[in-house]
Amino acid sequence: MEKGEGRIIKFLSGLWGLVRNNIWLKIVALIFAMILWSYVLADTNPMREKNIVNIPIQFIGLDELTDRGLSVRTSKTPLALQIQVSVDVRQSSYTMLNSQNIDAVVDLSKIAVPGTYMLSVDTTTSIGQVASVNPRELKIEVDRTAQVVVPLTFSLKGALPEGCWMGQPQLPVSNVTVRGAEQDVKRISKAVCEITLDNLVENLKYASTIDIAAPVKLMDDSGQELYRAYFESYEDTLIATIDVAPKRTIGISTADAVTGANELASGYEIVSIEIVPSSVDIIGDYELINSLPPLSVIKVSVRGASEPVTVKTKLIIPDGVRLTGTDEVEIRIDIREKEEEKIFNNSLVSVVGTQTGTKVTVTPGFVDVHILVPLSKLELYVPDSVVPFVDVAGLSKGSYTLLLQFRLPADLPQEKVSALPKEVNVTIE
């Protein structure tokens, strides 16, 4: 017995050494094993389980639902749902099984009144046998079908490049008709056509009209968008028509804005001319609008005027040019009585604010006072009516350079009075 066991062990050891040291025997053994495994599989063809995901559900009976005046509330249960199915399939067909071989159906044809329903998902396959479905049932909410006509507006997103003008977008319709489940339709407040301006035009040289596709969005009262998939019977994209053109901001000249400037009432003159607005936006061909000088206005007559004039007038627009706004402007002409300078020589500089026990010396003590007044009042002002002074209140002993101040009649503005010199030296002892 011991000799037999020894011979077996010796034989197996020799066989293992032969296989271990011979690469060709290894390869032959591997091939033989593969052939044997294939034979076993082909002979038994066992069942295997395969999971298939993203299988779309087919909803049937929608026409019958529509005929009864009903709609699925897709805001609650979208009609684009997908499910997962496990299928028992033979090994030989395992690789052939995919979502194309599986049908998942939900039947809506028996629903006759609004309500909430739990409907089974009927699943079949042409290869293998369905083992499980997830989910097996769907909660379907059905409502009466409603229709509403909502106003259509537009919103602008982005901006045109600098130097471009855009007219009011024109839409092909002023409202849209929307159908769907009544509870969802009632939430609609308006429809908005969103127009994107970015990259709409580049290097614009001439006026033109552009058509642009713009999505239509449904909005509720709070401004929240309602998803397009919830509704039917409306166009979700419209073509907006937009006029565009090169634009330039141009000034308005005051040079020739008035006539009769030399025929004002005697003793009066024009002090200033202002046009409001002082510039406007013009549109037209790029070369033309950028070659123009400031625009002119239809002249305003001030003949015989003795007070400020404010009137409306119109711009003169060159051929081939359009305004983006109104052509009316306001011209403001400040007309005042002419003024003349009167000089009071050697006016004594007064001192105010002196403290008891101090001595104040002003150098120079006399200055020349200049006033600018209307001609009709020139003789009303005498030297004593305009008094130059310095205020030393609160100053301690020492030397100072102070700016002259003036006591004036109530009708003589400070800015109309000056003195030479403007400052004086003050010593307090």
Number-wise, the strands total 32
Mean pLDDT reading:
89
CATH topology of the largest domain: RNA Polymerase Alpha Subunit, Chain A, domain 2
Query: Kindly, what is the distance between the CA atoms of the first and last residues, rounded to a whole number of angstroms?
Result: 147 Å
Q: Any idea what the CATH architecture of the largest domain is?
A: Beta Complex
Number of helices: 5
What class would the helix/strand composition place it in? mainly beta
Number of domains: 5
The major beta sheet can be summarized as: 12 strands, mixed
- Helix coverage percent of residues? 10-25%
The rough form would be described as: elongated
Unreliable spans? none
Key features?
429 residues; mainly beta; RNA Polymerase Alpha Subunit, Chain A, domain 2; 32 strands; twelve-stranded mixed beta sheet; 48% strand
How would you portray this structure in words?
The structure is a single chain. Helix content is 13%, strand content 48%. The protein is elongated, with a radius of gyration of 49 Å. It has 5 domains: 2-44, no CATH class; 47-143, Beta Complex (RNA Polymerase Alpha Subunit, Chain A, domain 2), CATH 2.170.120.30; 149-245, YbbR-like domain (RNA Polymerase Alpha Subunit, Chain A, domain 2, Beta Complex); 252-337, Beta Complex (RNA Polymerase Alpha Subunit, Chain A, domain 2), CATH 2.170.120.40; 339-428, RNA Polymerase Alpha Subunit, Chain A, domain 2. With 429 residues, the protein is mainly beta. The model has no long low-confidence stretch (mean pLDDT 89).
Summarize the entry for a quick read.
This protein has 429 residues and is mainly β. The chain contains five helices and 32 strands.
